[in-house]
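User: Please run a holo structure prediction.
Assistant: Happy to. Please share the sequence and the ligand.
User: Here you go; the ligand is pyridoxal-5'-phosphate.
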Amino acid sequence: MSQGYNRVFNFSAGPGAIPVPVLEQARDEMLNWQGAGMSIMEMSHRGKAFIKVAEAAEADARTLMGIPDNYKILFLQGGASLQFTMIAQNFLRGGSADYITTGEWSKKGIAAAKLEGDPKAIYDAKESAYNHAPAYGDLAHNDGARYVHFTMNETIQGVDFAADPPADGRDWICDMSSNIASRPFDVSRYAMIYAGAQKNLGPSGVTLVILRDDMVERITPGLPPMLDYKTHVDNGWMYNTPPCWSVYIAGLVFRHWINFGGLAKVEEMNKAKAAHIYGVIDASGGFYKGHAVEANRSLMNIPFTLPTEELTTKFLEETKAEGYLELKGHRSVGGLRASVYNAFPEEGAKALADFMRGFAERNG
Ligand SMILES: Cc1ncc(COP(=O)(O)O)c(C=O)c1O
């Protein structure tokens, strides 16, 4: 335990840790936001005070992630899961698109798209238990594909493409839910990026969508208004009541990482955190086994297994007693998973690594 307030080391895959200074500011402003006499949760989204919050969140998202002017920023609801459907409804209907499957979340993406059109699975890493991502250059694309969809970081398998797609004229659409803002990325390589906020950007309830302007012209006409990106673009993502509190916190998170020094600094910090844990896995002589191949190891989600179920249970019991929580792996991969999102402190990663070393010595 550390960081004050009796906080545990929270290795949750999502919702994940939020920076403590953000929580402190939210606490301080909870009952009376900057003299408004009420909390953000209680005020009209059309009022001056919230508009100020919304504009700052958008501007800071743009600054932090280097989002060019020809991209719209939308704060929507329905999670990344609704995006699986909206993408297909808006851009696929009546046509085909290329889908890359590297794990559980990209599987869900293509499954939702199948209900709307003809998504083609151009790559599926099933045969190797979803332990890697393809090199962009090895993909065989289909003529006429309206876009290429992929999941940059597979949260469950801990598999990361580790680079932006090429500037090849294709319209790359990326689910960045579990690694957005974990390192610098070149927005201009993408037609669209989306991410549920609850891992690196703030609380659940808001989904960030970054959409290139020309994509708006290609939207299928006649969609239900809430499912049509154009509705949200035309109404500055305030067609209906937005998730005001979640946007406010996301805004504080953007500002926090800008003040920290930007995404290059964030990446440096994330590499150091992940290195503590991967270092122990690699030096354990096979006691710990990581899931992903080295080139595609995620900096955010680190799934690993122990030699037996008994040891896995013992590991979970002992770490829980130390105040290291949410380390149980997803049922589809088994074992353990340490998620170390941006706001997860380096001392927590180091503490887990030290514990892992001792546990292997005692039980190996
Ligand atoms: C990569 C990825 N995509 C999509 C989702 C689904 O997000 P949501 O729960 O916001 O719908 C998750 C959630 O964990 C995820 O990790």
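The chain has two domains: 23-260, 262-363.
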